[in-house]
Structures are given as structure tokens and as C-alpha cells.
Amino acid sequence: MILFNLLETQLTRVHSFQEMIKKASLYRHPLANHLMDPEVQKESGEDDDDRTVVAEIMQRCFVPAFVTTIPWEGFHFAGHEIRINEATDCYGAVVWPSALVLCYFLETNVKQYNLVDKNVIEIGAGTGLVSIVASLLGAHVTATDLPELLGNLQYNISRNTRMKAKYLPQVKELSWGVALDENFPRASTNFDYILAADVVYAHPFLEELLVTFDHLCKETTIILWVMKFRLEKENKFVDRFEQLFDLEEISSFPSLSIKLYKAMKKNQKNACYPQRRMWKAKAISGRLLL
């Protein structure tokens, strides 16, 4: 029965991507919903520039042209076709709109943010799409997430970067605020960029995330962070984040409730450092939940 339902869903995708979105299929892409449904566009009243960029991003996505028992999505970035295996029952194993926005930004801003030969780490890498694109753009990439997600993450990265990227990305476990000194010693940890896409979600344990950002970030490290605003907690987290980092909003996508930020570490005298909490949290792909 499960196999039948999966095949039926795949056939629906092949028959009509737009119709699939309107019917809210299991594999509907949240980003596509705002683009493909004219009624949503009309009601939202978003400006043309916003919709134009979203349309350009959506052009990088494609769906399987054949039936498969493994759910996957396809993307075109950095001159390559990228195929991402997903698991729809897990937050961290699905490609979210913020990841597409960050991939598009990295690809279209290579002059200002040149990743060639740069040391890059992604926190909450999930399916690995952002790490893959950064790698294809020439970076030394470390893709991190929770241990239960590393298998699929490693598979996607190996499949899409082997014999294609200048450097093969490293996949490494990272639970926010846990064993940071042991796994990422400050003396030998030196990242040029920290990438994060939609890591802030249902987050009672924000301090651990802030501790992780702070630990990985040197004075010259640039954080590129994309966030979808769903709840008031997102705004509170931004306020807390600004106590540690100089934050600049680079771009905004009102139709998606997504913002793209650039951040760098504040002068130590002006920073308000978080306290590490000692209790454990249940974590889902770097998104900490009670």
C-alpha cells in the first residue's frame, strides 16, 4: 500500500507539476506554491520584483521524468544537475524554500562572495543542497547535522560532488552547543563562511544555537543566514542574535516570509554572550524542540 501511494504520487508529479501543487500533494514544494498559484499571487499583493526572483529560483527546480520508489527532487545550480534524496517524514531530510534562496544567492553573487578555496561550514545541512552548491562553487565545505541525518546527507553530497567539485565536502556531526571544543577546537577551527538555511524553527533552545554560531565564528568569518518567519519567536531570536553579531539584511522575499542576512561577530566589548545550558534537548536536524 505504501509503495502504491508513492508511485501514485510520483505519477501525479510527472503528469502536472502545477496541478500537483494545487492539490497539495505530499511532495508539494512550499516555494512553488507561492509562484505557481495565480490566486495566491493576486491576493498577496507582493511586488513584481519579489515574484520575478522567486520565479527565477523556481526555474532551478525540476521533477522526475520517470517513476521511482525513492522520493527525490532535482535542481540546477552552479552549472550542474543536482538530485536530492528526501524523507518526507523528517524535518531535516526535506529541501525547504530557504535553502533554495541561499543556493540562488551564492550562485548569483560569486563576485562579492567568492567561495573558491574558502573554508565553509553549513550548520543544519539537512539534505545537503546548500553544501553541495557551495562545494560546486569551489569551497572547502564541512556539512554538519545530527547523527541520524548524516547517512542521507553523506549520500546526497557524494552523489552530487564526486568528480565534479574541486574539493570533496566533509560530513560531520554537530549538535548545537554539544562538545564544541572537542569536535571544533578554536585553535584549529577557521571558517571563512558559515551558512545556515532555516535552522531556526520551533526553538526553545536558542542559546545553544547562539553558542554554536559564536564558537565557529572568528572576527573575519561571514555568516550567510536565510530564515523563514513563521512565529513571533523568529523576531525574538533575531533580537537576541544582534546582541552577539552585527546583522545586515541583504534581501527580503515578502511572498515567502523569508529574509537573507549577513552577519559578522561584534567587538567583544559590545557583545552579550549566551550562557550554555546543561540540560539536553530533543533535536530535529539542528532545530531544537521540547
From TrEMBL:
Superkingdom of this protein's organism: Eukaryota
InterPro entries: Methyltransf_16 (IPR019410), SAM-dependent_MTases_sf (IPR029063)
GO BP term, example: methylation
Gene3D superfamilies: Vaccinia Virus protein VP39
Keywords carried by this UniProt record: Methyltransferase, S-adenosyl-L-methionine, Transferase
Gene Ontology MF: a single term: methyltransferase activity
Pfam family, one: Methyltransf_16
Protein name listed in UniProt: Protein-lysine methyltransferase METTL21E
UniProt source species: Capra hircus (Goat)
